[in-house]
Amino acid sequence: MGRGEKENADVAKATKPVGKSATSFIAGSTAGLVSSGLLQPLEVVKTRMQAHRLKAGFSINKSAWATAGCVVRDEGIRGLWAGVSASCIRTACGAGLYFLLLERVTRELNTKFPASKDASQTLQGARTFAIGAASRSLAAAMLCPLTVVKTRMEYASISGTSYTGVANALYTIGAKEGVKGLFSGLGSTLLRDAPFSGLNLMMYTHMRTVMGEVAAAQGRETTSMDTFFAGAVAGGAATFLTHPPDVLRTRVQLGRPSASFVKIVTEEGVRALWVGSFPRILRRTLQQAMTWSLYEHVAKLLGGTSLSPKAD
Questions:
Q1: What Å distances lie between residue 71 and 26, 47, 155, CA to CA?
Q2: pLDDT for 137-177, tens place per residue?
Q3: Which domain, by its residues, includes 231?
Q4: Is residue 306 in some structural domain?
Q5: Are the CB atoms for 101 and 138 separated by under 8 Å?
Q6: Number of domains present in the structure of the chain
Q7: What pLDDT is recorded for position 11?
Q8: Mean pLDDT score of the chain, rounded to an integer?
């Protein structure tokens, strides 16, 4: 092989697309990290609103704006980013794992059980829902300790417990409460995340197809704004429908293992199941719009995956 041929081979090797699983993880992690860091204030406000019954002085009628104002007044603007380190780690790892599992599960399922072109829309939707729910459930179960730490750190200034960092929080909770404490709220987390991800994926793929048809009718290529819109619609709708389990998860992970839907409704009314819904829906709408847009963009840059426009 001549020198020129060798150099061309080296260049080709260096620019070879990243493996699909690695592409999915990198793209998902990047999207999760960026969206989590930017939108952490909404998560802090949501957690404080949902925990109103755990500390005197919190009212179920306190709005998101009033809650945010209290945080800024008592803790300064930095208080709105409480637990941001844990949130970024949790979301980046969670999104990376989710998209990795989503790509793998989709690929394996399509290989072993090819989708029929004659299948009804209902059957196709159910298949997509199952893939999204299964992928998120596995990721959520693996990262439950980080979810617990994120929630505790967001509420630390109210609970009076201080942590020096994510590692310290993991050690402190594990030492005091054992493995049970680190996996507290796992059931309610799965009850929230499985249907959320199933609905989110199902609605996103549908909306993405619709936006593709709109773009084609207008004689143009699908843009990042089309993807952003599809992600926003899917994320907002799925979040609203699955908010009650998030309220329960927050209560359990902040030290109320006896919390239940029945107890919350009996003591506080049905409205309590949607406490903190506004900041959470706003955060998830923006987060999912950013996540899907960034995922698609980064995935294309790295060579494409089975969920990207460059799918095989």
A1: 34, 12, 11
A2: 999 999 999 999 998 998 887 777 888 889 999 999 999 99
A3: 19-301
A4: no
A5: yes
A6: 1
A7: 35
A8: 84
